[in-house]
Amino acid sequence: MVAPQQYLRLSALAGSLALALPTGAWAQDNAKPVYRCPGPPVLYTDALSVDEARDKGCRTIEGAPVTVIQGPARPRPANGVASGPRPADSRVDPASQRARDSDARRILADELRREEDRLAALQRDFKGGEPERGGDERNYQRYLDRVAEMKAAITRKESDIAALKRELSKLPQ
What we know:
Blueprint: H1 4-20, H2 23-28, E1 34-37, E2 43-45, H3 50-56, E3 59-61, H4 94-126, H5 140-170
Antiparallel strand pairs: 1-2, 1-3
């Protein structure tokens, strides 16, 4: 399969040569050899030097016609604009934008409230660094590991809350 850039290069080269050279000169032209390089996907190209082709294990194609089959054309949107950045003249209705901002603010505020509740529950269980020992924690190291995990969870929760507050502050009032 020919890479898109190489296909364009090959088709542009072929088109310009077809227009510039008479039919007899086309057959006599010492054009670059076309190589078939192994590997998924198989690559057909004329953009390699002899040394590069040898290093990659490519074979020269001679005498066999190379047929390039184009893939199906991608459907264009009805407005004729390809997907990607919006044109400079397309604007969102201010009322619509306010509604979006309001929804985003409400969602972030709900998430912030849930995270703060979870943090409060974690801090209650943590009891200032001395949580109650569980029945399965006869080994003191197990208890210390659980305390360290609780402390890390509290730190993560505080970080999450700070990130939510930053996101809320970015939204217009």
